[in-house]
Amino acid sequence: MSDPTSHLHHLGQGSAIPATPEAAILDRVPNPHADTDYVARFTAPEFTSLCPVTGQPDFAILIIDYVPDRWLVESKSLKLYLHAFRNHGAFHEDCTVAIGKRLTALLQPRFLRIGGYWYPRGGIPIDVFWQSGELPKAVWLPDQGVAPYRARG
């Protein structure tokens, strides 16, 4: 019997944090319920990147909701990918949309949405939202649960 995870780069083995998001390898696994519409949610409450101008850290809560088709993202590879942004300089909009686009290209989901709820810099919080596809009619998509900015928390 062959190992269904043998093609994965991270699961079950030691993995270094990628130097950049572009260098990160995202793994996918077959969806065992590809015949069913459902939402999978990932929440990254301590997402960090760097301001591309000042080099100062930026912090966000990222919420990724998707309705998988044939593929699921392997969670360890996703964690390493998101961690790679800690030394990456990019604006809030770029980080949020790039993550959504990369996951969409990898997974080809029926629907994907990402909400980036960024903490203020210069007194202004910037929230960024991106989605691909239309939500299937029979799927319940809960609110992302992050209140409009009032000193997040």
Automatic annotation (TrEMBL):
<dbReference type="GO" id="GO:0005737">
    <property type="term" value="C:cytoplasm"/>
</dbReference>
<dbReference type="InterPro" id="IPR029500">
    <property type="entry name" value="QueF"/>
</dbReference>
<dbReference type="GO" id="GO:0008616">
    <property type="term" value="P:tRNA queuosine(34) biosynthetic process"/>
</dbReference>
<dbReference type="InterPro" id="IPR043133">
    <property type="entry name" value="GTP-CH-I_C/QueF"/>
</dbReference>
<dbReference type="InterPro" id="IPR016856">
    <property type="entry name" value="QueF_type1"/>
</dbReference>
<feature type="binding site">
    <location>
        <begin position="92"/>
        <end position="93"/>
    </location>
    <ligand>
        <name>substrate</name>
    </ligand>
</feature>
<feature type="active site" description="Proton donor">
    <location>
        <position position="58"/>
    </location>
</feature>
<dbReference type="Pfam" id="PF14489">
    <property type="entry name" value="QueF"/>
</dbReference>
<keyword id="KW-0963">Cytoplasm</keyword>
<keyword id="KW-0560">Oxidoreductase</keyword>
<feature type="binding site">
    <location>
        <begin position="73"/>
        <end position="75"/>
    </location>
    <ligand>
        <name>substrate</name>
    </ligand>
</feature>
<feature type="active site" description="Thioimide intermediate">
    <location>
        <position position="51"/>
    </location>
</feature>
<dbReference type="InterPro" id="IPR050084">
    <property type="entry name" value="NADPH_dep_7-cyano-7-deazaG_red"/>
</dbReference>
<comment type="similarity">
    <text>Belongs to the GTP cyclohydrolase I family. QueF type 1 subfamily.</text>
</comment>
<dbReference type="GO" id="GO:0033739">
    <property type="term" value="F:preQ1 synthase activity"/>
</dbReference>
<keyword id="KW-0521">NADP</keyword>
<comment type="function">
    <text>Catalyzes the NADPH-dependent reduction of 7-cyano-7-deazaguanine (preQ0) to 7-aminomethyl-7-deazaguanine (preQ1).</text>
</comment>
<comment type="pathway">
    <text>tRNA modification; tRNA-queuosine biosynthesis.</text>
</comment>
<protein>
    <recommendedName>
        <fullName>NADPH-dependent 7-cyano-7-deazaguanine reductase</fullName>
        <ecNumber>1.7.1.13</ecNumber>
    </recommendedName>
</protein>
<keyword id="KW-0671">Queuosine biosynthesis</keyword>
